Amino acid sequence: INSLRTSIFTLLSIKIFLRLLGAFLFLLLAIAGCDDDNPADSKKAPQIHSIEPQEGYEGDEITFTGSNFGEIKGESIVSFNGVNVDEHISWSDTEIKVIVPSGVNSGKVWVEVGGVKSNEHEFTINLTNLEFEEVTIGKRTWMKKNLSVGHYRNGDKIQQVTNPGEWVNLTTGAWCYYDNNAENAKTYGRLYNWFAVNDPRGLAPEGWRVASDEDWKTIDEYATEDGYQDGGEYTGTKMAGYADLWADGEVKSNHQKFNLYGFNGLPSGERDCISGIFKEKGKIAIWWTSSSYTEPSESEMAKNRYILYDGTRLEHAGGNKNYGYSVRCVKDE
């Protein structure tokens, strides 16, 4: 009898243990289920419900509303057509506020949380805002930065070309980032071939024009009349900006004259017309003019202006129209 009682008691103990184990496992699953509601700890895809506004300029504030964004940003990203946002104003599970980054085109925007990408929404980048920093040098008012637009004045998109073989064979307007890296546009602007400069739809924003060779000559004239008896010897030094971006050389050796004109000329480099490779960033600031050569033998050439790191002058030359150079604009008179 005692043996039977012991057996019954053992069976009851096992049954109670199994019930307690089941309850414990159920509790663990419930807790795990609650944790899954936190997108930062789960594999739930983030969802964009809306973006406001749905179009804007570079530098505008944009609000994303949705779900599963995570309570903190962490390693998550917001991307405008492949260009990741640097400036995040706020971040919560259902709302994100960001600043539209520079160097972006109209296209898809999305959020990525824990390596999981959200649905995409369309966002339109308006033509560049008409308010520019400007500086007057002699008879002309200039933009203080290199141009960085992805559309012609009428709103038509300018093609972005990254492939070097395609670039060198172009006969229509195109642009690129130096090294095909959008981060470079934040400092240096974009590089354009001359076909974009000369397109009748207008590369320069309303109220501006791409500087002609005659426009650039007015700087030389101003430098000569500026009280210096050097015939423009230090014009390049007085136009170059941000000394830390320049390779060591003569252009920044005279600190009293460096960037004296406030032009902020940057050594943004160039894209080669034969190989399509990028070169000379840090060593040359070179800009297209809107002026081409008139001789038939020079029909493939257009005029440019440049500053070299190992010189102090503002130089002029000609380049094949398939080169990628910077562009600077002057205000319409």
In short:
The chain contains 6 helices and 22 strands.
Output the keywords.
333 residues; alpha+beta; six-stranded mixed sheet; four-stranded antiparallel sheet; 6 helices; 20% helix; 28% strand; elongated
Model description:
This protein is of the alpha+beta class. The protein is built from 6 helices and 22 strands. Strands 2, 4, 5, 8, 9 and 10 form a 6-stranded mixed sheet that branches. A 4-stranded antiparallel sheet has the order 1-3-7-6, with no helix packed on it. The longest helix is centred in the N-terminal third of the chain and has 35 residues, at 2-36. The N and C termini lie far apart (115 Å).
Write the layout of secondary structure elements.
Blueprint: H1 2-36, E1 47-52, E2 55-56, E3 61-67, E4 77-80, E5 83-84, E6 88-91, E7 95-99, E8 107-113, E9 116-117, E10 121-125, E11 134-137, E12 140-143, E13 159-160, H2 164-168, E14 174-176, H3 183-188, E15 191-192, H4 194-197, E16 208-210, H5 213-225, H6 235-239, E17 270-271, E18 278-279, E19 284-292, E20 301-308, E21 315-320, E22 329-331
Parallel strand pairs: 2-10, 13-14
Antiparallel strand pairs: 1-3, 3-7, 4-5, 4-8, 6-7, 8-9, 8-10, 11-12, 14-15, 16-22, 17-18, 19-20, 20-21
Biggest beta sheet attributes: 6 strands, mixed
- Topology pattern, helix = H, strand = E: HEEEEEEEEEEEEEHEHEHEHHEEEEEE
N- and C-termini, Cα separation: 115 Å
Give me the Rg, rounded: 30 Å
Fraction in beta strands:
25-35%
Q: Quick one: overall form?
A: elongated
* Sequence stretches where pLDDT stays below 50 over 5 or more residues: 32-42
